[in-house]
Amino acid sequence: MGMLFSLVAVIALAAIAFIGVKLGLLGLFGIILPYLAIIVFLAGFIMKVVKWGKSPVPFHIPTTCGQQKSLPWIKQNKLDNPSSTLGVIGRMALEILLFRSLFRNLKTDMKDGKVIYGSNKWLWLGSLAFHLSFFVVLVRHLRFFTEPVPGWVNMIDAVDGFMQMGVPHLLMTGVVLLAAGGYLFLRRVFNQQVRYISLAADYFPLFLIIGVALSGILMRYFIKVDIVKVKELTMGLATLNVSVPEGIGVIFFIHLFLISVLFAYFPFSKLMHLGGIFLSPTRNLVNNSREVRHVNPWNPEVHVHTYEEYEDEFRELMKEEGIPVEKE
Amino acid sequence: MANKPKPDELLSNINYKPPRTQWTDTPVEFKKGYYCYAGRPNNLEYISLPHGRKWSSTDDDWQLVDNWKEIFLEGMENLLKKFRSFRLFMDICVRCGACADKCHFFIGTGDPKNMPVLRAELLRSIYRRYFTISGKLGKIAGARDLTEDVFKELWYYSYQCTECRRCSVFCPYGIDTAEITMMARELINLLGCCTDWISGPLANCYRTGNHLGLQPHTIKSNFEYMVDDLEEFTGVRVEPTFNRKGAELLFVTPSADFFAEPGMFTCMGYLLLFHKLGLDYTWSTYASEGGNFGLFTSNEMMKRINSKIYAEAKRLGVKWILGGECGHMWRVLHQYMDTMNGPADFLEEPVSPITGTKFENAKSTKMVHITEFTADLIKNGKLKFDKSRNDHIIPTFHDSCNTSRGMGLFEEPRYVINSVCNQFHEMPENTIREQTFCCGSGSGLNAGEIEELRLLGGLPRANAVKYVKEKNGVNMLSCICAIDRAVLPPLVDYWVGDVDVCGVHELVGNALIMEEGEKREIDLRGEPLPGMEEKEEED
Q1: Count of beta carbons in the 10 Å neighbourhood of residue B430
Q2: In sequence order, which residues have a C-beta less than 8 Å from that of residue B527 and are 6 or more positions away?
Q3: What average pLDDT does range B361-374 have in this prediction?
Q4: What average pLDDT score do residues B455-470 get?
Q5: Could you give the CA distance from residue B220 to residue A202 in angstroms, rounded to a whole number?
Q6: Is the pLDDT assigned to residue B535 strictly greater than 60?
Q7: Sheet of strand B500-503: strand arrangement
């Protein structure tokens, strides 16, 4: 149900952009909605992070994934069980840039009464390809918002198109993004456990991103648009000097509208894992809770059963056994 | 269980195919052998948990208070404000499913709601409905109204999680189901729905200082048995002291270590070691429990139970605290105690009185793990061992969830074992260290009425033991946890057979040379040491 709903929703969004442009609402789809989306994205993102930040971390709960720092002659695992801020930075960098934890992934199964484990790096590879290519695609798009285009953006473009196939050159990351998105979708469908847990909120952003990639690829290689006019529009957006030139193909507005929806949807969705991962207390804390006291800002006052109460109840028994007491 | 199903029967029931109906439309079925008995009103009252009453989880009417929904949702809001982990883990899960087959309860039962992600979704669906904007869209947004059925389902699955944190190792964001289960149980406790097996030991611990409800004279007489046995087995008479002011160290261990086998053998190991060292230490009858059932009840309960350790250390005037072999206990001591009941500025930074080693990693909390302490002694050559006394034992080592994933104590116990045994074999790498599997009975699930669930939860662990038994002839599963010592024997008995369970310090006690030229013909279990009688004849 969630899958169908999401698919229909994304197709409907593309159709809305199509009809809107045909109705001549270029200002709405070319200027107003993109700006609104950016505002919602930034405000929503910040508000969410502030909300997380407002809840304190009362206890020191890193998940330790390697040998602790204890006696000097025991070799510590400084990245999976960091005892210093530098170690935590390393751990977080591995997690955020290379998906360290997903790299541990295993497939567990049961065969003839035996639990068996197999290496299963596909999810790691698929996700890394998906995120990395998405990131490069995003950076590449800076050339639409800068003039002159910085050298390093051109260089990324050149590296991305190093195979020099076709005109314009095929950019790998677009293809990889589409392929990895496709893998993540198929995994959701064909892995029975993953299918069982999947919600509309899982399919919708995936379809949306696939839609963005697809419309982008269509625009670059197949249904060409006037790239000079596109840049005129995007530069206008970037410099707050807006205008919508006539004659940009409708596919561009579909692409732009899907991106706008993605940005506006972002802060209210699971996509916020982008911000959340930095704050995860099982990953971003130094494992030094016996060395440095962690303070809980709301440490509650509680009733305790004091020694005096204990001795009052058991004094006679203790005396009989020769256990020392405070009051004879 | 009077008619325990055979292993093959249990195995044949495991099916990983999810039901045809969506999980939100699949009502929970309370299966016998999978749910705990309800907590008794007198126990709840003793530890000030509200709304105690006579009830059973199989009743149609749980007799929840009229405004239970308000209490639950207010409680949830409160916890969201207090715990960043909770709010964050409610928001950022992408349902990638990496955690799904990492949970021992999922592997053992095949129940999709035992996938960590789905266990969390039980609570997340309520969170979305009441605490997010998109959740107002209802079912399509993955939101659910809080109904009695939804609450019952949450209860059922909150007590099918041992808070072992294995899923959190594999989660790309470190989402920790233990945190989520803890929050769920906090909410459950606001409505008086604690289980009997948790609230009973809590009430005991609050009153007598230990889960088993051992009163001071019983503790002392239990020790007398052990001391007599030790003298018979080793010829050494040890003299433990209790509640002794002015001792240098306070020693705290789970009470099961001086109550039941095989924990008592571990305790004999401690006694021999401390006697050999001439350690100036004392036991306490007031702080006679290392374990802490509050950890899986509520943060306040954890603090109340834990308070006795520092309070007693202060009253007795010791310098620092040494802690025995225990899992949950060390999660609390390492990650919570100092925060809750510290700062321990009345104690000194721990220094081994024998080797002079400073335990830098414990300088604030001032509590040292016994394997850290013993490993240091061995490294500094302060102990002599006759390893051959453990030659009848071929051990492997079970990493406890809490010391592994909430501490990272891996090499210390291994160093100790290898120093006192000639043989040692590791279980497969996906089942040890940070990837270790739970015994299946942690976080207050060691209840007789859920034996079937526990056997299934312990299956991955038992399977790994079977593997090294068949491959390497392993006959001893060593561990550093009292729950393990209590539950692993029946578990391996059921799935594996002919493998015993011991604490690491039992092995230490066996091999430890108390004085030059001493002869030992029996081990700490009172069993003859193979080969030793022959040696005597040769002499």
Answers
A1: 20
A2: none
A3: 98
A4: 98
A5: 60
A6: no
A7: B395-398, B476-479, B500-503
**Whether the Cβ atoms of residue B480 and residue B413 lie closer than 8 Å to each other:** yes
Q: What's the pLDDT score for residue A162? A: 82
pLDDT exceeds 60 at position B534: no
Min mean pLDDT across B69-78, B288-297, B483-492, B512-521 is at B512-521
Does any domain span residue A295?
no
Q: Between A71, A197, A276, which is nearest B95 by CB?
A: A197
Q: Are residues A318 and A175 in the same domain?
A: no
Q: How many domains does chain A have?
A: 2
What does the pLDDT read at residue B539? 44
Phi, psi at B522, each rounded to 5°: -130, 155
Residues A317 and A251 in one domain: no
Mark whether A204 and A324 lie in a shared domain: no
Q: What is the pLDDT of residue B538?
A: 46
Same domain, A173 and A92: yes
- DSSP letter (8 states) at residue B449: G
* Interchain CB distance below 8 Å, A123 and B96: yes
Q: Give the DSSP letter of residue B422.
A: S
Work out the average pLDDT over A196-208.
Answer: 97
User: A296 lies in a domain?
Assistant: no
Tell me the chain A residues in contact with residue B92 when contact means C-beta distances shorter than 8 Å.
270, 272-273, 276-277, 280
User: Cα distance from A133 to chain B (closest Cα, Å)?
Assistant: 18
Give me the CATH number covering residue A8: 1.20.950.20
Shared domain for A318 and A244, answered yes or no, is: no
Dihedral of alpha carbons B323, B328, B331, B333, sign: negative
My answer on whether A169 and A258 are in the same domain is: yes
Nearest neighbour of A117 by CB, restricted to B285, B303, B430: B430
Q: Dihedral (C-alpha) B107, B173, B180, B97: value to the nearest 10 degrees?
A: -30
Predicted local distance difference test score (pLDDT) of residue B417: 98
Residue A39 within a domain: yes
**B59, pLDDT greater than 80:** yes
A297 in any annotated domain: no
| Pairwise CA distance, residues B289 & B286, whole Å | 8
Residues A277 and A320 in one domain: no
Which residues constitute the domain of residue A128?
2-287
Task: Inspect the interface and report whether the beta carbons of B363 and A291 lie closer than 8 Å.
Answer: yes
Interchain pair A300, B300: CB under 8 A: yes
Q: With contact defined as beta carbons under 8 Å apart, do B451 and B4 qualify?
A: yes
Q: What pLDDT is stored for residue A283 in this prediction?
A: 97
